[in-house]
Amino acid sequence: MDVRVNFNSKDLEAKVRQAFASYSQLLEAQFTKEITTKQFNWPTETQRGSYNRKGGGREKVRSPRDIVDSGAFRQSQLRTQVSPLQYRYSWIGYGAPIYFGYSTKAGNRMPPRDWIRPALGKFPISVFMQKYLDS
Fold first, then answer.
1. What is the C-alpha to C-alpha distance for residues 17 and 21, in angstroms, rounded to an integer?
2. Judging by beta carbons within 10 Å of its beta carbon (0-12, 13-18, 19+), is residue 27 exposed, middle or buried?
């Protein structure tokens, strides 16, 4: 007696690609949420925004704070599909100094702010893929 089991890997591969594309969009949105959530410690009070002519001033911000000053960093976020199962996320210009921290010319140390690890922690890829593939 013979038993044959056939497996159509193309169907599974298509479902995995679709699941990963959905995951990449979810992760992109979570990165933005982490950037805009007031959760980061900051050593000083800072002023944000621009002065307006109608008497409004700039907003004074203390800890905890988000990473958004002008919005340029948040808007620089870029998700690029490298291959069917690989996406690259990048933040133009400010990414490394924000992530690793930096020192000003005056010697003030600005703390690192990690928005990547919390996003990955909220949506572990193995959990997402399992749920997606089980549906």
1. 6
2. buried
> Looking at beta carbons, which pairs linking 67-74 to residues 24 or more positions away fall under 8 Å?
67/35, 67/36, 67/40, 67/98, 67/113, 67/115, 68/35, 68/36, 73/35, 73/98, 74/32, 74/35, 74/36
Q: Which of 68, 53, 126 is nearest to 98 (CA)?
A: 68
- The H-assigned helical ranges of 6-122 are 9-36, 72-75, 95-100, 116-122
Q: Identify whether 124 is preceded by a cis peptide bond (ω within 30 of 0).
A: no
In DSSP terms, 107 is beta-bridged to: none
pLDDT digits (tens, 9 = 90+) for 17-33: 999 999 999 999 999 99
Predicted model pTM:
0.81
The phi, psi pair for 82, rounded to 5°, reads -90, -40
Based on its alpha-carbon atoms, the radius of gyration of the chain, rounded to whole angstroms, reads: 21
